[in-house]
Amino acid sequence: MLDSTLLIRYLLLKHMKILAIDPGEKKIGIAISDELGISAKPLAVIKHIQREKDAEQVAAIAAEKGAELIIVGQSLDEDGKPTFTGRKSARFAKALRTKTEIPVKLWDEFRSTQIARETRIKMGVSRKKRGGHLDDIAAAVILQSYLETIDNF
């Protein structure tokens, strides 16, 4: 039998909009879930300027879209510890928490960019057009991973 607190938490998480962030060196990918928390879709790509300013932009987008949770992709090594890039993601998440009341959670972004690239290929995007940004698609991959994990709790 499920603990009633866990069941309530699950139901609440499954009925909220969630924003996901794929922070990169030059660009930040953003994705959003549907209201039922079933699917993720790419939303936007913003140019990386400076951590505090990026956090302000993301917080504004989250508020505008009515997000109730923000997931920030974090790369981890084979031992589950943050990589150099993962530590940068953690610092971004910390800055983001100072700009919004919306909860911010770090999430393993394992292979998100590779999966985004593979998705473009499966969609039939020509090799010539595949060279563009993958950041928002990678954010959607991160978010879908989170949504599927919640679904299988």
Report on the architecture of this protein.
The protein has a single domain (4-151), classed as Nucleotidyltransferase, domain 5 (2-Layer Sandwich). The protein is 44% helix and 21% strand. With 153 residues, it is α/β, with parallel strands linked by helices. The chain has helices at residues 4-13, 51-65, 84-97, 112-122, 135-151; strands spanning 18-23, 27-33, 40-47, 69-74, 104-108. It is built from 5 helices and 5 strands. Helix 2 (51-65) crosses helix 3 and helix 4 crosses helix 5. The protein has a 5-stranded mixed β-sheet, sandwiched between helices.
Overall geometric form: globular
Any idea what the CATH architecture is? 2-Layer Sandwich
Taken together, the total number of domains comes to 1
Beta content comes to 15-25%
How many strands?
5
Oligomer: single chain
Largest sheet: 5 strands, mixed
Spans where pLDDT lies below 50 across 5 or more residues = none
What is the string of SSEs from the N terminus onward? HEEEHEHEHH
Number of helices: 5
Overall radius of gyration: 15 Å
Mean pLDDT: 82
